[in-house]
Amino acid sequence: MSAADQETADPTSIPVSNKNKVLETGASLAQDLFDAVFREQSFAPVKAICAHLNAFHVYDSDRNRCVEANHYCSHISEGARLIGVEYMISGKLYDTLDSDERKLWHSHVFEVKSGMLIMPGPEGLLAPGWEMAERKEMEEVVGLYGKTFHFWQVDRGDKLPLGMPQLMASFTSEEQLPKGLLAERDERYRVSSEAKSEKRRDIAEPEIHPGEWSPKASS
Q1: Fewer CB within a 10 Å sphere, N or C end of the chain?
Q2: Shortest CA distance to 109 belongs to which of 218, 201, 217?
Q3: b (16+ CB within 10 A) / e for 172-199
Q4: What is the helix (H) or strand (E) element at residue 84, kind and residue range?
Q5: What is the pLDDT of residues 70-101, one digit of tens each?
Q6: For 134-177, how does the pLDDT look when each residue is reduced to its tens digit (9 = 90+)?
Q7: Cβ-contact 36, 122 below 8 angstroms
Q8: Are 123 and 34 in contact (CB under 8 A)?
Q9: How far apart are CA 54 and CA 70, in angstroms?
Q10: Are 43 and 32 in contact (CB under 8 A)?
Q11: Judging by DSSP bridges, how do beta strands 106-107 and 144-150 pair with one another?
């Protein structure tokens, strides 16, 4: 079983906005209709949660510290593995971080503006509505910073989550992208990152705050 841990207390105590509730509801309804027609469930890993467990976790580095943790569990398969987690915060919160912590976070400006970041949805069915929902999501994500850790290095063929979690970043320029990476993804999802980039030209591009870490350009 894989378990997603959630602390009982919310450290930021930021309520979900009405806009986010509308986006979540709209995306869920559209996905449910798409599933009924095509019998494909992009949200299957989330819908497969089968148990809620509660326990306590103690820090391995400091046995005097522990947290209560709620686990939302599902049986895993080859096609549905929790490989990592990304937290996203606003630029305002990013400004409160010290210089060392900032290096662990990355912006989403290039992901959004280049068309690299997509919200997979139904092909043809409800396309205009889905594109509108995707654009609204991009308008919000473009100003956020992400901190990502991967537990499972599937790219090297690991059968289990081995070793320590790995800090992940994001590509921040065209030169960093491995050749053919976007083309292969676009073909699989039947989308065009170039077309999405063109449509997103008018999305306001926030100033990228200093201090973020970015990967070295691919050779």
Answers
A1: C
A2: 201
A3: beeeeeeeeebeeebeeeebbbeebeee
A4: strand 84-90
A5: 888 887 766 668 889 999 999 999 999 999 99
A6: 899 999 999 999 999 999 998 999 989 999 999 999 988 888 88
A7: no
A8: no
A9: 5
A10: no
A11: antiparallel
Closest CA to 58 of 47, 49, 68, 48: 68
Query: How far does the chain reach from its first CA to its final CA, in angstroms?
Result: 38
CB neighbour list of residue 128: distance below 8 Å, 6 or more residues apart? none
CA dist., res. 119 & res. 114, Å (int)? 14
Q: How far is 57 from 26, CA to CA, in rounded Å?
A: 36
At residue 137, the 3 state secondary structure works out as helix
Stated pTM of the model:
0.73
Place of tokens 């990152």: 193
Which tokens belong to 121? Answer: 């949805």
**Sequence letter at residue 69:** A
DSSP 21-74: HHHHHHHHHHHHHHHHHH---TTHHHHT--EEEEEEEE-SS-TT-EEEEEEEEE
CB proximity list for 129: less than 8 A, separation 6 or greater: 26, 30
Q: Which two tokens stand for residue 189?
A: 């999802």
